[in-house]
Structures are given as structure tokens and as C-alpha cells.
Specification:
The complex is a heterodimer.
Chain A: H1 15-24, E1 29-33, E2 37-41, E3 43-49, E4 53-58, E5 61-75, E6 79-90, H2 94-99
Antiparallel strand pairs in A: 1-2, 2-6, 3-4, 4-5, 5-6
Chain B: E1 5-10, H1 14-23, E2 28-35, E3 38-43, H2 45-58, E4 61-67, H3 69-79, H4 82-98, E5 103-105, H5 111-120, H6 134-145, E6 148-156, E7 159-166, E8 182-184, E9 188-197, E10 199-200, E11 207-208, E12 213-216, E13 218-220, E14 226-228, E15 232-248, E16 250-268, E17 271-276, E18 284-292, E19 300-316, H7 319-336, E20 343-354, E21 358-370, E22 372-374, H8 375-379
Parallel strand pairs in B: 5-7
Antiparallel strand pairs in B: 1-3, 1-4, 2-3, 6-7, 8-12, 8-22, 9-11, 9-15, 10-12, 13-14, 15-21, 16-17, 16-19, 18-19, 20-21
Helix pairs in contact in B: 5-6
């Protein structure tokens, strides 16, 4: 049986396609405001949260925010606002991205 | 809508519940983890109901722990629904009560006549204030009052105040050219007599009776001829005014024997319904209590009468104390009769006994008073 090969979408060099992906809502979007507030769009669920860490599921993997005194200021089905002292944002790795079919 | 409802979530998988809440379309605010197994958050009133149902479905510990803002105010109002109704009723009752007349102040002098006239005019406690015309009331009361110089009606809140002033008696007027005599206003012994015009008919030391001529209103022109003049003068006489008081030395004292009986009835105006029948005693004292049942405006009341059996005992008062008491009363009565312009010369009290146990005190006040009045003033009772 011939081995099936997954074909990666050709994004590099095609800005129009990147814009299309963003617009379609498949990619998570993180907006930071001065390290005190972060707005995450296109998440698919909350995996874990406490005062030091917030882990969110996205279509491309797990998005993690590290900090102190973190709280979910606003939680909506499509977006989420984290408030507190945000020290690091850990984006889904390329490998994770592949695993999640990005 | 603002997220005014504070909720508490307890459990092992808090994130899973949040996920389910998001799937239901709920929006959460200020989600903070207070411990490993507890989180607090705020939602709208509508979403709080969604979450409670969700918690019930999955048997999770979710509870409303507080409310703020409009949600709290709304819940307070719902819990105290009777308060605004009671306030509205109280306001309505107050406005009704304050729009009516409840008190009528009448002067001591003429109170009965004024009260009767007001009653005929339909003015009584409970009459709407809008119906009252104080000018009309003044006119009506002045008309029925007779000898009043002033009758005033004034509305002060829910109180109608009636004020009146009696007319002053007309002074003794005389015509200088009209002939008149001066006669004695009362019995007495003449002390001094000064005839300014006219001729003196009595002299000092004479005893005179009421109506006796004191100064004749005529003057002699010649030996044979006299002509009438207006007699003027002053006849100061020694006169006496008296006051009397009496009381029995013995009296009956009613001492309770200790036996009592209670009876009560429900009374609505002249109708009554007995509630409890009591025993009446041959000699008894009664204590009556009236307890309103329907409040101020319904004349329904429970009338409770307590019959207290008593035993009569004949007792005697202290004679000296009784004398002092009667002396005071008799003297007060006598002094009331003394005119303000008279001079008090002497006063004393006599005591006597009548019918065995009755003491009479008679106070006499001797005064000097001008007793010369015109015949017309004597007829009208002037002095």
C-alpha cells in the first residue's frame, strides 16, 4: 500500500493566503497591552488556569500565558481577556501545529 | 446587561465547567481562582440562571454568593415587594387624612353655641378642608353669637381655630342738660357723700337701701323755684359681700370587699353584643374600659366593665380641716363679688351647724364702694 503524504499548505510567499487564514478564524490571535492585559481570539477552550498560568486550546495547539495574579477578565465563546502581570506567552510550536493539522 | 451576579464554582474540573458554560453561550467576567477547587466569577442575571441549570444537570456545586448593582436592587425590591405597596398606601392614607379637618378649637365662652352652629353648617371632624370657607364661618358664627365684637375662624393644618371677643359693656352715658337722680346701687351705710351737681338726699352715717335716692337732680334757683339738673356725685358706702360654702362632716367610705366580676360586650354605635356576662353587686364600683377594635374611623369597640363589690362605712372628717376648707371656698366666693375699684376694709368667716352633721361657713367682706348710680343703670343691673 503506498504511503500517504500530507501536503502542507503553501503559506510562505503567499501573503494573501495568510490573510485568508487569519480572517477565517482558524489561527489564534494574541493581543498584548503593556504586559497587563492580553486578548486571545479564536481559542477553542480553556485547559487550565490559575494565578500563574493560563493554558488555552487552539486549533494549532496549546497557547500558554505565564505571569502573576492572572485572572480571566472576560470569557466569551470566541475570545478571552486575561488580566494580570503577564511575563511570557508561549505559542504553539511548529510540531504541535502539525499535529493539530495546522 | 451588566454582570452583577457573583457566583462560586467548586469542583475538581473547573475548566471543564467553564467550557460547558461557554458552549451554552454564557459570558463570564473576572474569573479568578481562589483555591485549587474553587473559582469565583461574575455573570449576568440571565446567564446565572443558565449556569445554575447546567450545574444541576451535571451535579456541580455552583452557587450565587452575591449580587451588586441593578441586580441587587431588583432582588431587594422583589424581596420587599410589600414595602413599596405599604409606602404607597401610607402616602395615600396620609394625603387623605391631611386633606380633612380633624380638630376644632372653640373658645370657652360660647363654645356650645358655636359648636351647634358649626354642626348645622355640616362642619365636623372629617369634613374635607376644601369645603371650608373661613369667611363664611366667621359670618355665620358672628350672626349667632349675639354680643360678640369679633369672631375669627382660622385654618391651621387640619385644625380649625375659632376665636371670639365679647363686646365691652356700654359705659354709663348721661346728658349734661337732662335731669336725673342718683340712687343707691345696693344696701349700705353711707361713709362720704359728695354731690357735684344736685342736692344730697342723705348724709354720712345714714343706712340706705337699694334704689334709695342719694343725690336729687334738682337745683334751687330761688326760694320757690327749682329746676331739674343732671345729678353728679359720689356716695361711698360701707357695704358687705358674702360667700357661703357647706359640707357634711360625715361621709360614707366604700371599701372593696375583694369580690369582683367582669363583663364585656362588643359595641357598634348603639348596637351591642354581650361577650361575657358578669354579676352585679348591691354596692359596687364600676371600672369601664373601652377598647377600639376597628381603629380610629370605625366605632367598633369592646366595652369591658369590672364590677367591684364594696362595703359602706360611715366616717367623719377632721373638723378643723373641714373648717379651713370651707373657709377658703366661702372667702373665694365672696371676693369674687368684690368690684375691682372697691376698697376692702375687713373680712371674716362665721361657722354654723345645720341638720346635725352639716357645717356651713359664711364669709363676709366689708368694702367701701361708690354706690351712686342713675335710675336707668340700676334697672339694667349696673352699679
Amino acid at each position: 500500500m503506498p504511503q500517504r503524504t500530507r501536503i502542507k499548505p503553501m503559506r510562505q510567499g503567499f501573503p494573501a493566503l495568510e490573510w485568508l487564514e487569519q480572517a477565517s478564524g482558524s489561527q489564534p490571535r494574541v493581543m498584548l497591552a503593556g504586559g497587563r492585559r492580553a486578548m486571545i481570539e479564536n481559542h477553542t477552550g480553556i485547559i487550565e488556569f490559575d494565578e500563574q498560568r493560563v493554558r488555552l486550546m487552539t486549533k494549532q495547539g496549546v497557547l500558554t500565558l505565564h505571569g502573576q495574579g492572572l485572572m480571566l477578565a472576560e470569557v466569551r465563546p470566541d475570545a478571552l481577556t486575561v488580566r494580570g502581570i503577564i511575563t511570557a506567552v508561549e505559542l504553539p510550536s511548529a510540531q504541535e501545529e502539525d499535529e493539530h493539522g495546522g | 446587561m451588566a454582570a452583577d451576579v457573583k457566583m462560586r464554582l467548586r469542583g475538581l474540573m473547573l475548566e471543564r465547567f467553564l467550557q460547558r458554560a461557554l458552549a451554552e453561550g454564557a459570558e463570564l467576567r473576572n474569573v479568578s481562582r481562589t483555591s485549587d477547587r474553587e473559582a469565583m466569577f461574575f455573570v449576568t442575571e440571565q446567564d446565572s440562571q443558565k449556569l445554575l441549570k447546567l450545574a444541576e444537570r451535571y451535579q456541580l456545586d455552583v452557587a450565587i454568593v452575591g449580587r451588586t448593582g441593578r441586580s441587587r436592587a431588583w432582588h431587594m425590591l422583589r424581596e420587599r415587594l410589600s414595602l413599596p405597596i405599604a409606602l404607597a398606601l401610607a402616602m395615600a392614607f396620609m394625603s387623605l387624612a391631611l386633606s380633612r379637618l380633624w380638630l376644632i378649637d372653640l373658645p370657652d365662652d360660647g363654645a356650645q353655641v358655636f359648636a351647634q352652629e358649626l354642626s348645622q353648617m355640616g362642619i365636623r371632624p372629617g369634613t374635607p378642608l376644601a369645603r371650608l370657607d373661613t369667611r363664611e364661618i366667621e359670618r355665620a358664627l358672628y350672626a349667632v353669637g349675639g354680643d360678640y365684637a369679633f369672631v375669627g375662624a382660622r385654618l391651621n393644618g387640619v385644625r380649625l381655630q375659632i376665636q371670639s371677643v365679647r363686646e365691652l359693656p356700654e359705659p354709663d352715658l348721661y346728658e349734661i342738660d337732662g335731669a336725673r337722680d342718683l340712687v343707691a346701687a345696693r344696701d349700705g351705710v353711707v361713709v362720704t357723700l359728695n354731690a357735684f351737681t344736685g342736692e344730697a338726699a342723705v348724709k354720712s352715717g345714714d343706712t340706705v337701701r337699694r334704689g334709695q335716692l342719694l343725690i336729687r337732680g334738682e337745683e334751687r334757683v330761688t326760694d320757690d323755684l327749682t329746676h331739674g339738673v343732671c345729678a353728679l356725685g359720689e356716695a361711698v358706702a360701707r357695704v358687705w359681700v358674702t360667700g357661703q360654702a357647706s359640707a357634711s362632716i360625715g361621709y360614707e367610705e366604700h371599701i372593696p370587699t375583694g369580690r369582683t366580676s367582669l363583663e364585656s360586650e362588643l359595641r357598634l354605635m348603639e348596637y351591642s353584643l354581650p361577650l361575657l356576662t358578669g354579676t352585679r353587686f348591691d354596692q359596687e364600683l364600676e371600672q369601664v374600659e373601652k377598647l377600639p377594635v376597628g381603629g380610629l374611623f370605625l366605632p367598633l369597640q369592646i366595652v369591658r366593665t369590672r364590677h367591684i363589690e364594696t362595703q359602706s362605712t360611715q366616717k367623719y372628717r377632721d373638723e378643723q380641716a373641714l373648717k379651713a376648707e370651707l373657709q377658703q371656698i366661702a372667702m373665694d366666693q365672696a371676693l369674687l363679688k368684690v368690684p375691682s375699684y372697691a376698697e376692702i376694709i375687713d373680712k371674716w368667716v362665721d361657722y354654723s351647724m345645720i341638720e346635725g352633721d352639716r357645717m356651713i361657713a359664711r364669709a363676709v367682706v366689708e368694702i367701701h364702694q361708690n354706690i351712686a348710680v342713675s335710675r336707668s343703670a340700676l334697672k339694667t343691673g349696673g352699679s
